[in-house]
């Protein structure tokens, strides 16, 4: 991932800030669209509730370093891919507890609160 990032210049990221539509569209699809689709599939498919919750957890998980590498290999917009990975990884600190708790309540009827220790030492 570091090597892929070295191939970028500041102008690659400036283009994203000047034309943010693709960034926000992709970020919305990852943060909102994927969990909605996962919930819809989980509601419709006759699979065990534990697998449904696992499916929800996967939909809430951030994209990884592999996406940036594959984007580089396929000559895509690497700056956009890396920016999405960085922002999505940060936002999932807040979204994963919400989405996973919702999945637990809907499919397992559990009231267990999943939370991440922000600000605790």
Unreliable segments of 5+ consecutive residues: none
Alpha-carbon distance between the two ends: 30 Å
Give me the secondary-structure category: mainly alpha
Largest sheet descriptor: none
Total DSSP helices: 6
Classify the helix fraction into a percent range: over 70%
Shape: elongated
- How many domains? The number is 1
The share of residues in extended strands comes to under 5%
List SSEs in N-to-C order: HHHHHH
Tell me about this structure.
This protein has 121 residues and is mainly alpha-helical. The protein has one domain. The chain is built from six helices and no strands. The protein has helices at 2-6, 10-18, 21-44, 49-60, 65-73, 78-108. The two termini are 30 Å apart. The mean pLDDT is 86.
Keywords:
mainly alpha, 121 residues, elongated, 6 helices
Brief summary:
This protein is an all-alpha fold and 121 residues long. Helices cover 74% and strands 0% of the residues.
Topology overview:
Blueprint: H1 2-6, H2 10-18, H3 21-44, H4 49-60, H5 65-73, H6 78-108
Helix pairs in contact: 3-4, 3-6, 4-6, 5-6
